[in-house]
Amino acid sequence: MLSKASAYGHHDNLIGRAHDAAADVHQSTGAALAFSLLVAGAAVFLAATTWRAVAGTNRRSATPPLIGLQILGLTVALSALAYQVRVGAWVTTADPVVLGWFADHRTEWVTGPAIAITDAGGPVGTAVIAVVLGALLSRRARSLVPGLILIGTVGAAALASTVTKSIVGRSRPPIVSQVLLETDHSFPSGHATGAMVLSTMVAVILGYGSPAARRGLLLAAAFAVTVVVAVTRLYLGEHWLTDVIGGILLGGLAALIGSALYGIWMRRASDRVHSATQVDPPHAVSPVDAATTGRAA
Fold it and tell me: Which residue has the higher pLDDT, 297 or 254?
């Protein structure tokens, strides 16, 4: 017969196991829900993006709701991915496999350029590039607004990345896997975030009002730059796969918001010039407004 102390111990052990089982069920349910939201968010974003591409640029009334759906889709997808990363759900199971593959395939002639790219795409490098390109784009448009939107969007994305890192609190890959030692939080990748938002915003500003083919080429080039930067982070062992995916999602979300602001400014500038030409056609359009309107047409 069990003693009273043994009975109490057995009872406490059963309660502990029950609590652990309930926690496991709760976590697995939350992870499953997060995965469903991840898929749903991605589907909403892709559907809205496809709709915008099919509708073209002539249907202004349809653009704001579609941009809103794109932003909603990316926000839901990013939040769901962050939750899964935080709880270590099965979506992260590919992370160590990808990390190991890149570690096993490193070569000296690739490592050097990869380090150079990752250094240029760091926080300082991204900030410098954003300021330089912002100045050039502002000079091109003869207005401070494009540069301010670019720099502000990149800065906001960097801040959001830092905050998200603190909330998720994910550790970096093991030190033995890293080429460059980094010990801060890992999700999302700041490099991927910066590359995505900076290159996409530049593509949007340069391609605004251009034919669809040119805009598509610019956006494809922007995504290619992002992929190169993201791959260097994986190659050097500084991030997990889901880190760079999260960075791309966050950078894309910031770029969507920034491009929406830029589009609003361009449309208002175009409307002001159009109104001015109706009042005084020979003299109302300044060289600055004419240049801006030409790009917005």
Answer: 254
The domain that holds 188 is classified in CATH as: 1.20.144.10
| Cα–Cα distance measured from residue 45 to residue 67, given in angstroms and rounded to the nearest whole number | 9
Dump pLDDT digits (tens) for 167-222: 999 999 999 999 998 889 999 999 999 999 999 999 999 999 888 889 999 999 99
Q: Count up the domains in the chain and report the number.
A: 1
pLDDT greater than 50 at residue 226: yes
Residue 219 falls within a domain, yes or no? yes
Q: Does 201 reside within a domain? A: yes
> What does the block give as tokens for 48?
């809205």
In a domain, 284, yes or no: no
Q: What is the Cα–Cα distance from 254 to 157, expressed in whole angstroms?
A: 6
Q: Give the DSSP letter string of 258-275.
A: HHHHHHHHHHHHHHHHHH
Per the structure, the complete domain to which residue 107 belongs is given by 93-271
- ∠ Cα 159 163 164 (to 5°): 115
Cα separations in angstroms, 45 against 71, 76, 157, 248: 7, 10, 19, 14
Instruction: Dihedral sign for Cα 167, 252, 291, 278, please.
Output: negative
The answer to whether position 153 is within a domain reads yes
